[in-house]
Amino acid sequence: QVQLVESGGGSVQAGGSLRLSCTASGDNYLFYRAWFRQPPGKEREGVAAINTGLGGAYYDDSVKGRFTISRDNAKKTVYLQMNNLKPEDSAMYYCAAASSLRDSWWLPQTFGYWGQGTQVTVSS
User: Fold this and answer.
1) Phi, psi of 50 (to 5 degrees)
2) Residue closest to 117 by CA, chosen among 93, 90, 81
3) What's the pLDDT tens digit per position in 4-36?
4) Going by C-beta distance under 8 Å and a sequence separation of 6 or more, which residues neighbour residue 50?
5) Could you report the per-residue pLDDT of 60-116, keeping only the tens digit for each?
6) Can you give the pLDDT at residue 54?
7) What is the per-residue pLDDT for 93?
8) C-alpha distances out from residue 36 to 24, 33, 74, 87, 110, Å
């Protein structure tokens, strides 16, 4: 059984930084890992994704240059380093995993496994 456990959320002021972590257990073939976020009252949206084998990364335009997704395959952990945070980055952040990309990485339906979420709040 696959489990994804996130950590690292919190409250920061605008311009600050946070690092989210997501550790997987139960499956050695989760080659695609991603971070999504969902502000209150809005749909879940893709933030970044990574191919854990080749290391290729994908980003939403709103976070390019500020967020970095990375992985430690030995620990089955994916990180999201978030710098220069803005109030509009406030949301519940979820990590997701899939063995392959059968659809666009930014679509929630592409991923079959999800973490429980960690809250990020950025104050102005």
Assistant:
1) -145, 145
2) 93
3) 999 999 999 999 999 999 999 987 788 999 999
4) 32, 33, 34, 56, 57, 58, 69, 70, 71, 78
5) 999 999 999 999 999 999 999 999 999 999 999 999 999 999 999 999 999 999 999
6) 86
7) 98
8) 16, 10, 23, 16, 12
Residue among 2, 64, 65, 8 at smallest CA distance from 33: 2
The token pair at 82 is 């978030």
Alpha carbons 77 and 88: distance in angstroms, whole number: 26
What's the confidence (pLDDT) of residue 29? 85
DSSP per residue, 17-53: -EEEEEEEES-S---EEEEEEE-TTS--EEEEEEETT
Count of beta carbons in the 10 Å neighbourhood of residue 107: 15
The token duo for 74 is 């030995």
Which residues lie across from 93 on neighbouring strands?
37, 118
Whole-number Å distance between alpha carbons of 77 and 39 = 24
| Neighbouring C-beta atoms of residue 38, cutoff 10 Å | 15
Question: Which tokens in the block code for residue 30?
Answer: 């989760």
Give the model's pLDDT for residue 121.
98
